[in-house]
Description:
The protein is mainly α and 264 residues long. The chain is built from 9 helices and no strands. The longest helix has 55 residues, at 172-226. 25% of the residues are buried.
Amino acid sequence: MDLATLIGLLGAAVLVSASVIMGTSPEVFLNPTGLLLVVGGTLFVVLAKFSITQFKFAFKAAARAFKFQLPSTQESIDELIELSKLSRKQGLLVLESQEVNSPYLAKGLQMLADGFSAEMIKEMMAKERLLTLERNEAGGRVFSAFAEVAPAMGMIGTLVGLVQMLANMDDPSKIGPAMAVALLTTLYGAMIANMIASPIADKLWLRMNQEAKMQQLWIDAVLAIKGDKNPHVLEQMLALYLPPESRARDEDAEAAANPTGGRG
């Protein structure tokens, strides 16, 4: 569970709700007409921008903003180093029986065990990486569209409410409801865009980049194992995927463990 997403969205909702409750009756902020116009209108306009498949997938992808299982870069590097050592001792065929956390990496190891060429492995893993990237990108685009359309639908609702208000200036009893629609639709649009759609879209873009980076790391590692690279060389290659501060700590720890630099 991603606590940052959960705490951020819930915190914003609690603060807005508290300001509503402390200021006046919450019922004042509930307007079925405004909600229907903004929520329903936003859904239909965004649907018009994408295919039904992309639209449905976006809501499934939204769960990744709250729960996303991906091993840390360091954990994955450690796992790959062990796999490299094992393959050098027992051969590539042993990788077929090894359990790993990622289905993507598991496919790469299976191709190694099956004797695929390095070119074929690189091509197939790169193609799957690209397709995964496109699917994840679609989810981010849909929620970015929600963030763009919701305020616009809120503005349309405001204009509708103002027209209704001006058309009924001779009937004071209708001015209040029309003004409520005019103001609340803007509020609804802003809340949907800034408290829901935009944060989820940004988090999905972040997830997409994280997964793409991890998949590239796995591609590099699988190809290095195929080329029978020394595990120490592989470790240095994959360390480039770590943040600079993490690499510095690892180098300091290695230097402390081997102060002579490997000289006898």
